[in-house]
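Dear Dr. H.,

I hope your travels went smoothly. While you were away I took the liberty of generating a structure for the chain from your last submission, since the lab meeting agenda had it listed for discussion. I wanted you to have the full record in hand beforehand rather than looking at slides cold. The sequence, exactly as received, is reproduced here:
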Amino acid sequence: MPSARNWLSSLALAGLAAMAVLGSAQAQTPAAGAAIYEARCKACHEGGVQRAPDRAALAQRTPDDIVHAMTGGIMTPMAQGLSDVDKQAVATYLTMAGPQAQGRPAGIEMPRIAVKGPSTPDPRCAANPPIRATPGDWASMGLDARSSRFQRRPGLTAADLPRLKVKWSYAMTGGGQPTVVGDWLFVTNRSGRFYALDAQTGCVHWSVDDLVSRTTPMVIRSPISPSGWLTVVGQNDRLVRAFDAQTGKQLWRSAELETHPISVLTGSPVIAGDRLLVPISSIEEAAAMSKSYACCTFRGSLAALDLATGKLLWKTTMIPEPARVVREKDTGQKVTGPAGAAIWAAPSLDLKRGQVYVVTGDSYTDVDTIGPDAVLALDIRTGAIRWRRQVTERDNFVMGCGPASTSGNCPTPMGPDYDFGATPILMTLKGGKQVLVAGQKSGIVYGLNPDTGALVWKTQVGVGSALGGVEWGIGANDTHVFVPIADFGPLMAEMRPGSGRGPAARAGLYALNPATGAIVWSTPAPRAPCVYASDKGKPSRCVRSQSAAPAVIPGAVLEGGLDGWFRAYDAGTGKILWEDSTTSRTYDTVNGVKGQPGGGIDGMGPTVANGMVYVVSGNNGAARVGSNGVNVLLAYSVDGK
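The corresponding predicted structure, in token form, is as follows:
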């Protein structure tokens, strides 16, 4: 699966797939939930599936978060047959102990989980002043057309970064990266709430309460909005909605962009002139864990919508080959292919050439196809594919495969799961030549000719694994490309005694020369204290993996880690200029939560705008480490002022 799929496996609590064959028992007590867990979940959550969070991680989540994983998350198709009461019983059982009862390393105090309950009202702003753009805004996921994540006018300097302190915090379930226009901040989250907050104080201008998303809102000036400001958001359930950014009033709602029942939107849409480009992905890799599921039929695609109406203009599928039957399962169901090539990451734009760049995920079956693990350029106006560069052939992968698998859906042989989950960046070199840079979970970063897709260079930066390599994103200024390396798999191997360690993990932050791919500097992820832990007697789940996308300002790079550390690096040397452990303390949030902890920093990373730095600690739930279901949006400023 792609980097982005790591969010999905986290969100979905992958081991819950074992409950797919369980019928409703009308369970109403934690004891009944325990029986379901023992019979159907334990094998995955207690060592059977690498991506499945263990009992300690499950206990850190809220019951609603676990129920959502089985009803609106990745495990929906596998939880068929469970009643709502069954799901609630399992969730209650898993969370009743809570992290306060879990073991912890000596000398480290585990903060008690506090969650925002329905009795905690949103702190409404006393006034809703007009949205006014400033030069220091960050209004989209990648900030500019090429998705560089380079904030040229941050409102603070690299020299100011050591004085950063938290100014305010807001407890919410991890979701998308915040975007900021003037004094307005927009952020989605997995709880179903889309917020417009005051960027200086965290009070709420308005909220939409039925929008489950992890995509990043995009905010632009537009005549179709009464206020002149438009925001568009992709929902998990494969549709897009547009709102007046000033009032939160819905302006249009697209039709469903994909009919496949377990397709989703994970990559953020981007605006190109009068159209909106929407990447489409799926959770079929997880559905394939179930023996009752006939794998696989999903094909990733990119859709273009009319920005004024939400009407579909074109849709291009990433796999060109026709479907065929691969084999018949002992259930009588037919395995078909090719399938896969989900687009997990946001596209990037090349307006000069009139093309959009996308990267694709892995293949789900053992039918050969040129679609997966590829970088593509498409015509913005027509959706025609101009070129395609597949970098890993036969990367055939679905979840839950191994000696004990009985699903009948596993490809043979299995691929390494080295797909793409990070948006590519178009770089302009000295002299005007350009190169398109893309990072893969293999740990390889590629430089491609944007006219033809021909390989210019490739550099092995990380070790690579099914969990990274390059995970969520890369960033760039005018001279360097900045590459966070997760190397989650090798790091976990280092933590397991007797696991047969392979190559040493290279987790950390790297700067590359975009002309040659040469590594200019590297800063390994420091070994630092971490305040969450596994069950008593088990190894700590604290992993110094750096999977989040970075933010770049003149002279510095900001990057977070799954261990909850948030750091600023000198862009020229890699020296750490500032660091803050977001899990070392709790937060009394502006929405009334006392003692709210942070978690691992994952996903789309930080936002820098108008003298403030924003990051979600616990982004996307990060169930593999540092998750408690409801985490916290942190707003930093110089001296906390």
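Two observations you may find useful: Residues 137 and 181 are 5 Å apart (CA to CA). The chain has a mean pLDDT of 86.

With kind regards,
E. W.
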